[in-house]
Amino acid sequence: MFTILAASLAALAGSAAAKGTPTVDQALEPRQAAFTPLASQHFNYDTLPYQADTSDGERGRQYGYNICNSTTEGPTSNCQTAIINSLDDFCIWGPPEPNSVVGNTEGEAVAWCTKPGHGSRIIPQGAITGAQFMRTPDYIQITGHINQALINMTPDDGGGEMDPHGADQRGNPLGGLVFTNAWGAGYTQVVEWHNFMGDNLFCLKACDPKGPNAARYCEHVFDRIGCWYNAPAAYLDGEFSSCLGASQDFPGIYTGADGVVSTYTQPPESLGPIATMPWVPVPPASSSCTTFSSAAIYTGQPTPSIAQTTSAASTSVPASSAAAAASKSTPAANKSSASSTASASAAANAAGVPAKFGASGVWGVAIGMVGAAIGAVAVL
Ligand SMILES: *[C@@H]1O[C@H](CO)[C@@H](O)[C@H](O)[C@H]1NC(C)=O
Ligand SMILES: *[C@@H]1O[C@H](CO)[C@@H](O)[C@H](O)[C@H]1NC(C)=O
Fold first, then answer.
1. Ligand nearest to the backbone CA of 51
2. Which terminus in the chain has less CB density within 10 A, N or C?
3. Residue of 251, 159, 247 lying closest to 202 (CA atoms)
4. What is the DSSP letter of 315?
5. Which ligand is nearest to the CA of 329?
6. 255-295 pLDDT, tens per residue?
């Protein structure tokens, strides 16, 4: 979606220039001159504006608002200030209307939080089936499994990325802000962050603005390769843990089987689905994990308003498909996938390999590969 939008905007700009018909550009010029990219704006949590985005460009106005309180809280909240504090107190971005596809609604996503108190919608009971909160020197990150239909996503949506950029620099969602108290001294604005939602997985990384590489750890250009590649972590379903850990490589930077460090370039959507990846994502080392075995850590959640018929397990593919997905990967991935098809598949299924391998198929490939790695370790 992001790629298509960028391409079409560029095409529009190009055709207007080529034909010498600058009417649209001229009309927009005064507003663009005053425009400040969302990621260049700084806000104080206690004095937030009603809407962080005050422009009125091609994508219209900001869908919701940034002042969120007890009046706005609940199932119709359009709060667009997300919080990430800890394993049991965080928000992720989800569509405002039921049965939506992220790619079509990323501009208007609203905050879905694990508990009351942030003026947002509350993630229903049972939706999150596994989660890990990770604190590193450079960022905090929440990753896990979610029954995404319970936060208004279609059950089979391969998903997409939310971040404070976008082709027009107004953010996805427009005006979406993220704050945390995890770095002390009250709430700090998380200037650079990314949140991938899809295939019943979620990941939100909030990069510490005091760090020198916040924008790189929270890179926003790899919108087609999902959580595993942008936020490598354990993604264990059924487990809830809070850990300290080492920082990942920057998204898109990887060390090949030959030991050479390379930079990945994401192909445009016009070239079709991404079938192979040149590396296998490796979760960084973690330490000091506190582990909880159930979702009981989440309190104050409403019961789901729709039947829970689409659990993460129901989206798993048969063992053979998981193996096939893994075999589509590159030579570097052979090492692990060759070890043990049976345990690899079991692990991959436990990790919730999605049934559909569309444009987002590479997410499933990654899960298959990591599942294979887990299987190989288990066999040893
Ligand atoms: C609560 O939030 C709404 C929506 O942003 C806002 O209009 C209202 O003024 C807020 N109420 C208070 C008391 O701040
Ligand atoms: C990967 O697997 C394929 C098929 O089994 C094999 O032909 C190829 O040599 C393997 N590559 C490596 C690096 O192991």
1. 1
2. C
3. 159
4. G
5. 2
6. 988 899 999 999 999 999 999 999 999 999 998 999 998 88
Region for residue 272 given its phi and psi (left: phi exceeds 0; alpha: psi -120 to 50; beta: otherwise)? left
284-299: pLDDT as tens digits: 999 899 999 888 899 9
pLDDT tens for each residue of 21-35: 334 444 444 444 578
- Give the span between the Cα atoms of 114 and 124, in whole angstroms: 8
Distance CA 101, CA 341 (A): 33
CA of 362 to the centre of ligand 2 (A): 19
Return the pLDDT at 33.
52
Question: How is the chain split into domains, by residue range?
Answer: 37-303+310-377
3-state secondary structure of 346: helix
Residue 217 — φ and ψ, nearest 5°?
-65, -35
Ligand 2 pocket, CB under 6 A: 331, 334
The closest residue, in CA terms, to atom 6 on ligand 1 is 67
The confidence score (pLDDT) of residue 148 equals 98
How far apart are the C-alpha atoms of 109 and 371, rounded to whole Å?
A: 31
Nearest-CA neighbor of 94 among 106, 103, 104?
A: 106
Asked if residue 168 has pLDDT above 80, the reply is yes
66-118 residue pLDDT tens: 999 999 999 999 999 999 999 999 999 999 999 999 999 999 999 999 999 99
Q: Residue whose CA is closest, atom 4 of ligand 1?
A: 67
- Say if ligand 1 is within 6 A of residue 72 CB: yes
> How far does the centroid of ligand 1 lie from the alpha carbon of residue 67, in Å?
6
Ligand 1, atom nearest to 71 Cα: 1
